[in-house]
């Protein structure tokens, strides 16, 4: 695996391992993920709010979530953008399989400017 993709791969593994427990029952899990990685730093406050909603899985998810936060903060800006695009692409693929939901719009233009936010800032 390329050194550029390796940090993103580690983050994605954590989401696969703990995301289902942390985001279970959320109406828009992709939006929740985007909220965590929307800015230049991982939104730890929002992450702690998600964990607080799931006390039964907090012991397993909190350490992994904090490690993911540190990994995200250490990513270069281009890698952070790539991770956001991966989340949007995953959402679009999931939506394509669900006739009730439209695919998400793109997160960024080619020049890297943000087109929309998943929801209002905290």
Number of helices, where a helix is a run of at least 4 consecutive DSSP H or I residues: 5
Count of distinct structural domains = 1
What is the string of SSEs from the N terminus onward?
Answer: HHHHH
Question: What fraction strand?
Answer: under 5%
Which regions contain 5 or more consecutive residues with pLDDT less than 50?
none
Derived from helix and strand composition plus strand pairing, the structural class reads: mainly alpha
Overall 3D form = globular
Largest sheet: none
C-alpha Rg (nearest Å)? 14 Å
The end-to-end distance, rounded to whole angstroms, is 36 Å
Q: What level of helicity do the residues show?
A: 55-70%
- Overall mean pLDDT score? 81
Please give the number of β-strands: 0
Walk me through the structure.
The chain has 122 residues and is an all-alpha fold. The protein has one domain (6-96). The chain is 60% helix and 0% strand. It has helices at residues 6-23, 29-37, 44-52, 58-74, 77-96. Helix 1 (6-23) runs antiparallel to helix 4 (58-74). The longest helix has 20 residues, at 77-96. It is globular, with a radius of gyration of 14 Å. It starts with 5 loop residues before the first helix and ends in a 26-residue tail after the last helix.
